Amino acid sequence: MATLWVRHAPSSAAVARRSVAAAFRKAGFSQDEAFDIALIASELVGNAVRHGLPLPSGHIAIEWTFTEDSYRITVTDGGDAAPRISPREAEPEDTCGRGLMIVAALTADWGVERTSAGTSVWASGPLPQAAPLSQEAHHARDGDGSALQSVG
User: Fold this and answer.
1) d(CA 12, CA 7)
2) Which positions ≥6 away from 132 have C-beta within 8 Å?
3) What total number of domains does the chain contain?
4) What span, in angstroms and rounded, lies between the C-alpha atoms of 33 and 28?
5) What tens-digit pLDDT sequence spans the chain (152 residues)?
6) Element (H, E) at 71
7) pLDDT given for residue 62 in this prediction
8) Exposed e or buried b for every residue in 107-140, given b needs 16+ CB within 10 A?
9) What residues make up the domain containing 82?
10) In this prediction, what percent of the chain has a pLDDT beyond 70?
11) Percent of all residues in the chain with a pLDDT value above 90, rounded to a whole number
């Protein structure tokens, strides 16, 4: 398991995308698989920034885990608003509203959990055949160069 803490800011979606892609590539996923999972993470972070609140630390937590046959990405913010359980159809001229449709299309399952800390949105999918079953700790840096906590 690894946790990446990012600021509750729009730029954090890009930080999440780069960090998650690097971690999943390091864990043995192909570039395309890592890109898809990183896209999922960035969509969930974008939604947390847009619709949620920061955790008491001012951050959003991004966690990823592997089991023997699957992975799971969880993004936790400090708000109590949950996304719609069914993604809505965005109109061609809409500038937003496609994030959860992308998450649903790229994952086997996704959902929402409310805890005392806030709201967690998770997405999961199968491990590719070639990915190893273990993961090294991943350390990342925020866009301003400050170290972020990561546990393995």
Assistant:
1) 6
2) 27, 28
3) 1
4) 10
5) 899 999 999 999 999 999 999 999 998 888 998 999 999 999 999 989 988 999 999 999 999 998 878 899 999 999 886 655 555 565 556 545 556 777 777 777 888 888 888 999 999 988 776 555 444 433 333 444 333 443 33
6) strand 70-77
7) 96
8) beebeeeeeeebbbbbbbbebeeebeeebeebeb
9) 2-126
10) 70
11) 43
* Cα–Cα dist 84/2, whole Å: 27
Q: 139 in a domain, yes or no?
A: no
Provide DSSP, 89-112. Answer: PPPTT-SS--HHHHHHHHSSEEEE
3-state secondary structure of 51: helix
> Which CATH number goes with the domain that contains 52?
3.30.565.10
| Per-residue model confidence (pLDDT) at position 60 | 96
- DSSP for residue 116: S
Three-state secondary-structure class, residue 38: helix
Q: Does any domain span residue 65?
A: yes
Phi, psi for 73 (deg, rounded to 5)? -110, 130
Residue 138 maps to a domain: no
Instruction: Centre a 10 Å sphere on the Cβ of residue 34 and count the other Cβ atoms it contains.
Output: 21
Residue 12 belongs to some domain of the structure: yes
Give the pLDDT score at 1.
84
